[in-house]
Amino acid sequence: MKAEQNELLTRTGPGTPMGELFRRYWQPILHSWELPANDCPPVRVKCLGERMVAFRDSNGKLGLVDEFCAHRGVSLFFGRNEEAGIRCPYHGWKYDVNGQCVEVPSEPEESGFCKKIKLKSYPLHERGGVIFVYMGPPEQQPPFPEWEFITVKPEHSYVSKRWQECNWLQAMEGGIDSSHVSFLHSGQLNHDPLFKGAKGNQYNLKDKKPVFEVVESDGGLYIGARRNAEDGNYYWRITPWVMPCFTMVPPRGDHPMHGHFWVPMDDENCMAWSFDYHPVRALTKEERSAMEEGKGIHVKVFPVTFRPLQNKDNDYLIDREAQKTVSYTGIKGVRVQDMAVQEDQRGPISDRTTEHLGSSDTGVIATRRRLLGQARALAEGTEPTLPFTPSAYRVHSMAIVADRDVAWEDLMARHMPIAEEQEAAIH
Ligand code: FES
Ligand SMILES: [Fe+2]
């Protein structure tokens, strides 16, 4: 990869080609519970290099506005959320959920001064316990994407997020590259309560040389990894990637399905959203408490910052003895293992000019290519059509054992679309 391509893919601040592409899609930004009630404390948010404050006003309306007061730049995180607006604590200027200044107590009212003051603000949409943001041009705002995990009943799903201290792309590339599972996570597959017991684990652990095939989908790609199974069958794990940063992990047995959004906070940090859901049944008490304890794809984090307790400052609590005896990494937790290897791939923004890619990187290469093409097209004035294509969001991951002679595109056509009984579970 050329340095210029790497720059283009990894920079998402305002005005950058990839930043503009991100700004055409709805992104998860907050849990609903972070703004639990009307007039509750405001929350700081950082997304795509922009610093903002979110609040729920006295009427229950959600607002996301520039973090800094238009007067002299004080952080509205310290503001008073009261009487349908957020009031700066320094001189009392007040803003509504659209960022419109509605009161400047230090100026004569008749001057109409406050009407001319407006903070930047973005629309929010709350669904399934998650608050999403659209940060693009108002005239390009697409309909809200009905991801399956937010449309199932609340008892079917669990969502968490964690701050990952690296660029969004190297984090997401881990979500696409399913070959690392046979190595990095090999100590966990048979022990983690949210993975263990699935037959697929044995194929993962036995065949460490999966063959990758990629096909284009409406929304991005389906990335198929094929491993050998018994009786002349193949074990397929199929990972959908939907533009720009949604990936789904193929399921294991009857365990819940899961996946991620890799949302840039700035160029050296991202918020990794992880969701688990079962399309046809409620999560069990045991599953839910395992998720809360940071098992499976979830991580134990500090409140407010969402920084994992195991982080780069403590070397993710690596245990070298465990690495020699019971675990491939010596690091507890599947997602922490990912973070440990991803947060510093020659720095928080990986230098892709020095890589040596192999056949197991087929999915990663195809994803970069599609992103580059879309970002360049948008920079040249061609708006993406995907945000306006609802079918692009109706995807599943899939894990299946099938006869070698069945083409995997056929398998997908048969099993990937959301089945009728699953549709029935969606409300
Ligand atoms: S800085 Fe906010 S009111 Fe003065
Ligand atoms: Fe991983």
Q: What does this entry show, briefly?
A:
The protein is an alpha+beta fold. The chain has eleven helices and 18 strands.
Give an account of the 3D structure:
With 427 residues, this protein is an alpha+beta fold. Helix content is 21%, strand content 24%. The strands form 4 sheets. Strands 11, 12, 13, 14, 15, 16, 17 and 18 form an 8-stranded antiparallel sheet that branches. A 4-stranded antiparallel sheet has the order 5-6-7-8, with no helix packed on it. A 3-stranded antiparallel sheet has the order 1-10-9, with no helix packed on it. Strand 2 and strand 3 form a beta hairpin. The protein is globular. The structure holds FE2/S2 (inorganic) cluster and fe (ii) ion. Fe (ii) ion (FE2) is lined by residues 174, 180, 184-185, 338.
Q: What topology does this entry show?
A:
Layout: H1 3-10, H2 17-22, E1 27-31, E2 43-47, E3 50-56, E4 62-66, E5 80-81, E6 86-87, E7 94-95, E8 101-103, E9 124-127, E10 130-133, H3 148-151, E11 157-164, H4 168-176, H5 200-206, E12 211-216, E13 220-228, E14 233-242, E15 246-249, E16 257-266, E17 269-277, H6 285-292, H7 320-325, H8 334-342, H9 362-379, E18 398-403, H10 408-415, H11 420-425
Antiparallel strand pairs: 1-10, 2-3, 3-4, 5-6, 6-7, 7-8, 9-10, 11-17, 12-13, 13-14, 14-15, 14-18, 15-16, 16-17
The structure holds FE2/S2 (inorganic) cluster (FES) and fe (ii) ion.
Residues 69, 71-72, 74, 88, 90-93 line the site of FE2/S2 (inorganic) cluster (FES).
